[in-house]
Amino acid sequence: MLTIERIALLELPAPLGYRSTMAQDRSKPAKKTLRYKLLRALKLVDEPERADQIYYETGGTKRKAHATWYRGETTNFFPDKKAIAKPNAVDEYVGKGWFPDAPFITREHYITAFGSCFASEVTKYLYREGYQVFGRDMKLNSYVVRSGEGIVNSAAIRQQFEWAFEGKAPKIELWHDKEGIPGDYSDEVRQATRAIFEKSDIFILTLGLSEVWYDKPTGEIFWRAIPKRDFDAERHGFRVLGAVENLDNLRRTYELIRAHRPDATVIITLSPVPLAATFRPVSCITASSVSKASLRVAIDELMREVGPSAESKLYYFPSYEMVTSFLPNPMKDDFRHPTEESVEFIMQTFKRNFLR
Length: 356
Fold this sequence. Notes:
This protein is an alpha/beta fold and 356 residues long. Helix content is 39%, strand content 12%. It folds into three domains: 4-41, no CATH class; 54-84, no CATH class; 98-354, Rossmann fold, CATH 3.40.50.
């Protein structure tokens, strides 16, 4: 009769045909397995709790996931090519968890969109659709209108809100247009910028890059690179803003908007346009990846702190992921700018989820 004592002493011979140490080692798991099965059969050990099988559908095919590991209360699987071909698959596989419960932007709202060059695409589309966008009125004497697509890093965006709402002007000339002409810090321009911000119901902030040039004595960060005629190697430096710095800039920007425009909604996007060139001694492709990753991590940290919701009035619109991980052939021949079809797809997705 088998007893627990006999099972514990149970020995198994090495498999036939094997006499090596490896063969003897291989017999040990089998011995343990047999002991365990016998103990279970005699009900001398508790049955392990089995997790429910996880079934999910992708590409029209129902699949079963390995159920050994606990997967949390929410499990979202990466789609295959068949899955992303479904109508509005982008809402499920890219926008899930980020989009509002229902569209809320109306034609009565005033919208300010600025940041990277992708902000101009957003502005043009909203204007065509009949929405009130400040960026189309070039008569407005404000840098967020005249140079809105050149304010590409998180520090530069923060500077505009600190200047407009708090009167905090940089100590040196940091702001240049695309021709390298410096912008002044006149109170007239500041008040015009403040008026735009105070009237805006929706802020769409499009972040572009993390590589920045800065002034060594003050630590202040330029919008763009430094005009060649002004460059001074002793005074000017280059660096990459890390995720912590980007988060600090985004958090401060959000706090300023909440303090001065508590009813306004903030929508943050990350431009899918990569760097044209890097000033680091590495390939531009890898440098661009780091530049975007630093910003994307900072955005995600802010979203986890505050949470995308109607209460926080903060949302992330994943245009970056649509281009880099969803659309099959999103770029023009320059391999940097999204095709017209890609931009239209992105904006149609925005319209479906945000515009009323």
